[in-house]
Amino acid sequence: MIRRAGALALLLMPITGAEAGARAAPAALPPAESLTASARWIATHSRVVAAEVRPSRPVHPVDGRVGYGESGARFGAARSGRAHEGQDVFAPAGTPLVAVRNSVVVESGNDGGRGNYVALYARATDETYVYLHMLGPVPARLGARVKGGEPVGALGCTGSCFGDHLHFEIRAGRGTTGPAVDPLPSLLRWSRAAPRS
Ligand SMILES: [Zn+2]
Fold first, then answer.
1. Ion ligand 1 neighbours, Cβ < 5 Å
2. Is the pLDDT of residue 28 over 90?
3. Which CATH class name applies to 71-190?
């Protein structure tokens, strides 16, 4: 009886030891032969990684009622020898513009075509959200972190623009040169207010 219990204790010891080791040093790799510990380690660490890069709930970039115009305002519409790389979103001048997600300001400025503009990179989705024709210079500095829903400026019509609107782009990766995708399906999903038209 005693001998059998002793053998059982010996059998259990390596498992208990491995568990204690995993708890004491969670970042250490478990022994290769301990499949249970490996599975536990992977599960724990994927949860940690998921929490770090989990996308925040996206917010529509225009904080107000919007319209999406006609076919000329769409992604892919013809624009003097090239294709329109964003979606134009119509709202009155001065309507607040907000960050779609937790992001960092990777570009901002003012030039002839884009007017006052800002590009926000969201690590969680590895996308850059580009805002053109803003009313005034962007107050946030390069490298500044902004939270989803945080104001980044106001809608306007600076640069090459007729009629107050936000030209909004979604680009893959960090910066304004990645491939652009049609932002309209996302914008419709993110809408907080019913479209004006
Ligand atoms: Zn546009």
1. 88, 167
2. no
3. mainly beta
